[in-house]
Write a structure and sequence with these properties.
By secondary structure, this protein is mainly alpha-helical. It contains seven helices and no strands. The chain is globular, with a radius of gyration of 14 Å. One iron/sulfur cluster binds next to helix 2. The site of one iron/sulfur cluster has 14 residues, from helix 3, helix 6 and helix 7.
Length: about 120
């Protein structure tokens, strides 16, 4: 049994296949393949404007995306202010702001249809 992740309250390597939905992850990797290089260092979270004002955690967004937890993402994603500070500090040059934007747009599309563009 792995360690319990203090950010998510669950094992960060655990995927629940009963609830897993990979459509958003596929979409993000199609449009922002640099996300594959994320090392979950938390640099984005440390500088996040929304995280300074709310309980928003952008690193946690990446974990939810990999776990295919669209219901939780839909609740959290609106807290992002799209300031772009996370992208400036990422050691892997990941446009994490664009990742958040792709998730947000994808969730909007899923609410109105079953396919993603
Ligand atoms: S700063 Fe970059 S590498 Fe680090 S967790 Fe955020 S997106 Fe991943
Ligand atoms: S763009 Fe969103 S996730 Fe990135 S630092 Fe700004 S508020 Fe945080």
């Amino acid at each position: 049994m792995g360690e319990l992740d203090f950010l998510t309250g669950m094992n960060s390597r655990q995927i629940d296949f009963d609830t897993f939905d990979g459509r958003l992850l596929t979409r993000v990797l199609q449009h922002e393949p640099s996300f594959l290089c994320c090392i979950s260092c938390g640099g984005c979270t440390a500088t996040c404007s929304a995280g300074n004002l709310t309980d928003f955690n952008v690193r946690k967004i990446g974990l939810m995306l990999r776990q295919g937890d669209i219901d939780k993402l839909a609740v959290e994603i609106d807290k992002c202010m799209f300031c772009g500070k996370c992208t400036l500090v990422c050691p892997r040059d990941i446009n994490i702001r664009n990742v958040v934007l792709l998730i947000k747009k994808g969730i909007s599309q899923l609410k109105t249809s079953t396919s993603l563009i």
